Amino acid sequence: MSPYSGLTEEDEGDKGQKDETDTSSKNQKLNKQLLDHFRHLVDLQFLDEVISDGANPNSSDRFGQTVLHEISRAWSVDVMRFFLDCGSDLRRPDQFGVTALHVAAALDYHDMVQFLLDHKARTHLDQQTPLHYAAKNDAVEAIRLLLRAGATIESTDYKLRTPLQLAANLGRSDAARLLLELGADAGVKDADGQLCITALIGQMSSVVMMSRLLTENRALIGPESCRGDMSNGNSMAGKLTLTQISVAFQVEGCCCTCLSLLLYPDRLGAWLLLLLNFLFNVSWTTVAISVSVRRDSPDRYVLPQDWWRVLLVLLALLLTLEELRLWRRWAERRLHDDPRCSHPMWNVCDWMVYCLLTASFSVHLVDVLRPSVHLHTISLRLFSVTVVFLWLRLMKHVRAFRLMGPFIVMLGNIAGDVIRFLFLYTEIFIPYACSFWIIFGVPSMQSVSGLLYSLYRITLVDEYEYAAMVTVDDVMAPLLCGTFLAASSILCVNLLIALLTDTFQRVHDNSQANAVMQQAVVILQVEDSIPLLRRFYDNRFVSNCCSPLVAACDNDITTLPRYHDETGHITAEIKENKLMQVISGNILILLINTSDY
Q1: Can you tell me whether residue 39 is helix, strand or coil?
Q2: Are the C-beta atoms of residues 108 and 136 closer than 8 Å to each other?
Q3: I need a labelling partner for 441 at 20 to 30 A (CA). Which of 61, 98, 394, 486 fits?
Q4: Per CATH, domain 405-523 is 1.20.1050
């Protein structure tokens, strides 16, 4: 499917709208004839007559596309030359900032691209340049022509992405290989802080060409002899960070010891984040417990005896304000995201805790200023609920440790299983609750809350007033209790256990991968939240002190000039040979079994 779909048909609602370039009904009709003609056939004589009668060659459809967009997509250069001679604006974009050069570059129509460049078409725009369109559509010839015409290879779009980064993110290997050969920098960051080389290593490791990163030498030499070469080498080598190195280790199959060594500074940051949040939880828990202390004095705080309580409140408030400041800084960095995709899912757990803390402390503050038994009771209830979610939130900061990371992931995955269980349990619980309310009036079921709690105790096979139920109705008591016990305790609870077991098995099978992913999440959080930790390690340590890669090699082996391209062909041949061997073996076994019969 073409990335450019051409001029759009006019809707019924658009027939009454007037063209922006000409308000007269005659010119409107001529403009419509001009646009409609390009949807089917080009007749230059007819077009010359229409334009001579007053049609505007720059007329556009409802998306702002002119006839030049259609010509650059599907027609010859002569048609484009004709309309430029008639006064069409070559640089006029549509509503999305796309010009005719964008369309030709995206479709790799190199004759049209060359013609437009010869007529001074702009290669630098505010959103995405034609070079970006050519890169993300793998238009290799268009990339060559645009760069030859003066397009900037390091130009950035509205999210600070270079053409190489777009090609890497979308898996356009030919365009990425060409841009790297022409000197594109793979160490640049976009607005989200993602480096281009990370996408290159993860999606097209063969294109990265590790020979640009490591110095090859047959002799076993030390790092001192090539340290200068690596320091003055390609910019991609100097901008490797821990994220790219960890991806490269996964691709090249390096040992986990090296990865653990490289992640040591961020391990310190993970411990620091955990300790800070633990202190945050302890401070608010202590405040909540101190509020519940009964005093003879009507005042909630008696100074100077309660100075430590005031100190804990101030400490808890400062830690909360710091958490909100970090979130605000994170939100400001997201302002450059795509407008239609700028609504990421909020961290529900964090905001639930912040809202509960705000409500609890606000009620407590009002109770301190105007003591009231009712306000004091409300504050105690809010604090008791807040403390539970406060300590559950601490689990997100334990994800970085491999012992607990998969367990935390499992707890997140069982949420769907619990929701399915609750739906089935509710379907059974509601009708039985109505039946028990209609039939029985035992003391534990005098209120709605008492009824619901009694049925919940039946589900848990706990003590309930069965004798009182038999006294009221000896027929319905065993019928309702027996069927509800079977449906809720035997069916629903065992179904929940089966779902949780299946989820645990699936998560446990990928425990190592989940642990590494959780470590990566915490590493990014540490780098964003605690920039002071960056002074403890050097991002260029590996490129400066760990090069070249010392490995045993065979002197008889000749390095192929196109090693990365031929690696894929060699791998395909090996797989094909193995497949043929398996098929031949199966046929031979089948023939032997047939001959036995």
Answers
A1: coil
A2: no
A3: 486
A4: no
User: Is a pLDDT exceeding 80 seen at residue 259?
Assistant: no
Report residue 454 CA to chain centroid gap.
45
In the chain, the amino acid numbered 268 is: L
What are φ and ψ of residue 189, in 5° steps?
Answer: -110, 150
Q: Tell me, what DSSP letter sits at residue 314?
A: H
CATH architecture of 12-208: Alpha Horseshoe (1.25)
| Distance separating alpha carbons of residues 418 and 495, to the nearest angstrom | 10
3-state SS track over 69-102: HHHHHHCCHHHHHHHHHCCCCCCCCCCCCCCHHH
Query: 581: which residues sit within 8 A by CB, 6+ positions away?
Result: none
* Token pair of 311 as six digits: 């100190």
In DSSP terms, which residues pair with 189 in a beta bridge?
195
Q: How far is CA 425 from CA 43, 143, 478, in A?
A: 71, 61, 20
Grade residue 257 by pLDDT with cuts at 50, 70 and 90: very low
CA distance 359 to 382: 8
195: β partners: 189
* 419-458 residue pLDDT tens: 888 888 888 888 888 888 878 766 667 777 888 888 888 8
3-class DSSP assignment, residue 189: strand
pLDDT tens per residue, range 336-385: 555 444 444 446 777 788 888 888 888 888 888 888 888 888 888 888 88
CA distance 214 to 222: 13
Mean pLDDT (the chain, rounded) = 70
Buried b (16+ CB within 10 A) or exposed e, 517-526: ebbbebbebb
Q: Tell me the C-alpha distance between 359 and 367, whole Å.
A: 12
Question: How far is Cα 69 from Cα 80, in angstroms, rounded to an integer?
Answer: 10
Q: What is the pLDDT of residue 215?
A: 38
Q: How far apart are CA 448 and CA 439, in angstroms?
A: 14
CA 381, CA 360: separation in Å to the nearest integer?
Answer: 9
